[in-house]
Design brief:
This protein has 19 helices and four strands. Helix 2 (37-59) packs antiparallel against helix 11 and helix 9 packs across helix 17. It starts with 8 loop residues before the first strand and ends with a helix. It has one domain: Up-down Bundle (Growth Hormone, Chain: A), CATH 1.20.1250. The protein has helices at residues 25-29, 37-59, 65-72, 76-83, 85-93, 95-104, 107-126, 131-145, 148-159, 165-193, 209-224, 250-259, 261-293, 297-328, 334-349, 358-386, 392-423, 429-450, 452-467; strands at 9-10, 13-14, 199-201, 205-207.
């Protein structure tokens, strides 16, 4: 990346966009208006439950590759399309207009609406009678989940002061990883407990076990909606840092991103490449262990649920602590530097599909999950540190749009495509994973390294404005 594209900020004034420093009256007035720590962590608890539920509904198909393929006679590529782009099409596209609402309207209400939508469409996934019905139901899940990330990250930023945000966001990201683990473990338990012949339901008929798991997965969200009225819309902090920031107009947002394009795009690229690898692993790991070692879907779901939960929680918590610690020491790119640790672990961990001992393979997959969450969990705080308050929802939405299409969408589909058309054998799934992930990881390392200086400059420029 060229360093000529960096921020160009001097003495508190961005020369490229001609933003002017203005007195931080709002910042002084709002200094002590953060909610109590107890209530803030209560809200984190609610958001953690919501995040876990969203991942349960999102990741469940990964455990059901075999019955879905058999039911609808589809290929690995078609399943990759279902698990990747089927979900991410509207998840990414709808994130942009919804983020505008996040920046200007009541965020808990937006989250409640999203929960209701994705829960209903998860239930409809279990009632799908064809591949395309299931595909469109997964698109509906994506619509519901599109507002969660921008709204949740924006809320957390207004519930916690800057020096505590990374840990709060790390705790929130723990819930995401728990959701991934729960989706596999709970799905595995259900597959083991449900009658092999399915369950007869009134007005619906007999549903096989894999369809029943979708019905069970959709139910908790309809209950969680009732908790959202206990979450208050907080005061929006750190307004008035730049001219026009109070309104958060699209033109101001575009100008800010253009002025800081190197740092912002390096951050988004790292997040995108990491999601491509993480979602490829999450989508295909259950199938790999079933095909290669003959482990039943119910059993591998429980095992992988534990592996991913432990690794993900460890990575998210450690990343938050290290990130806050480096910022406290005055390291300007401290939050973004965490991604370098993650990428250093990703490279060797990519070997997990090739390891012939399943126990050792679980260990390497766990390391890959630690690495992935170190990178992903650091992203929300890094965005918030280089984007003014009223632009945060839009910044997250752009990140979601790019990472959704080229990360969440491309990861599962790319591996399925390689299996079907390059290697041509289900037994070659391990090679498809490695061939897809290795060049992505190398590119991620390079971009993370090259983006450190630009990110530090952008961070320093906004930090000066906040402290003036």
């Amino acid at each position: 990346m060229s360093e000529s594209n960096e921020t160009g900020v001097h003495d508190g004034i961005d020369r490229r966009t001609k933003y002017e420093t203005i007195p931080s009256v709002d910042a002084l007035r709002m200094k002590d208006t953060y909610p109590t720590r107890a209530y803030a962590w209560y809200v984190i608890g609610i958001l953690m439950l919501v995040a876990a539920d969203s991942m349960l509904d999102r990741q469940l198909p990964a455990l059901l590759v075999k019955p879905i393929r058999e039911a609808f006679a589809i290929s690995d590529t078609q399943f990759g399309l279902l698990q990747g782009f089927g979900f991410v099409i509207f998840y990414s596209i709808m994130g942009v207009p919804l983020a505008r609402l996040v920046d200007h309207h009541n965020r808990p209400r937006l989250i409640a609406g999203g929960i209701g939508i994705w829960s209903v469409f998860t239930v409809l996934s279990g009632l799908a009678a064809s591949y395309w019905q299931l595909f469109f139901a997964r698109m509906g899940v994506g619509v519901g989940e599109a507002c969660l990330m921008p709204a949740a990250y924006s809320l957390i930023a207004d519930y916690f002061p800057p020096n505590q945000r990374a840990r709060a966001l790390g705790a929130y990201y723990v819930a995401i990883m728990i959701g991934v683990g729960v989706s596999l473990s709970a799905g595995g338990l259900l597959l083991n407990l449900l009658p092999k012949g399915g369950v007869l339901l009134p007005l619906v008929g007999r549903l096989p076990p894999w369809k029943m798991t979708f019905l069970f997965a959709g139910a908790p969200g309809l209950i969680l909606v009732l908790l959202l009225p206990t979450v208050k819309e907080p005061v929006r902090h750190e307004l008035g840092l730049t001219k026009g920031d109070g309104e958060g107009r699209l033109s101001e947002f575009v100008a800010h991103i253009r002025a800081n394009s190197t740092s912002f795009m390096a951050l988004v690229a790292c997040y995108t490449f990491n999601l491509a690898i993480s979602h490829a692993n999450a989508a295909w790991a259950p199938t790999l262990y079933q095909r290669r070692f003959g482990i039943p879907a119910g059993d591998i779901g429980i095992i992988l649920g534990i592996v991913m939960t432990v690794g993900g929680c460890f990575g998210a918590l450690v990343g938050g602590i290290v990130s806050d610690g480096w910022v406290a020491k005055g390291i300007r790119a401290g939050r973004f530097r965490v991604t370098l640790i993650g990428w250093a672990l990703v490279i060797p961990a990519i070997a997990w599909p090739l390891i012939k001992n399943p126990l050792l393979s679980y260990v390497f997959l766990g390391v890959a999950n630690v690495a992935g969450t170190l990178i992903a969990a650091s992203t929300p705080a890094t965005i918030q540190d280089i984007v003014p308050n009223r632009m945060r929802g839009q910044a997250v939405a752009i990140c979601v749009l790019i990472s959704g299409v080229f990360g969440i969408g491309a990861g599962p589909l790319g591996v399925g495509f390689l299996t079907d058309y390059l290697f041509g054998s289900n037994g070659d799934l391990p090679y498809s994973l490695v061939v897809f992930e290795l060049p992505v990881a190398i590119l991620g390392v390079w971009i993370s390294w090259r983006g450190q200086k630009a990110y530090g400059l952008t961070y320093a420029s906004l930090a000066r404005l906040r402290s003036d």
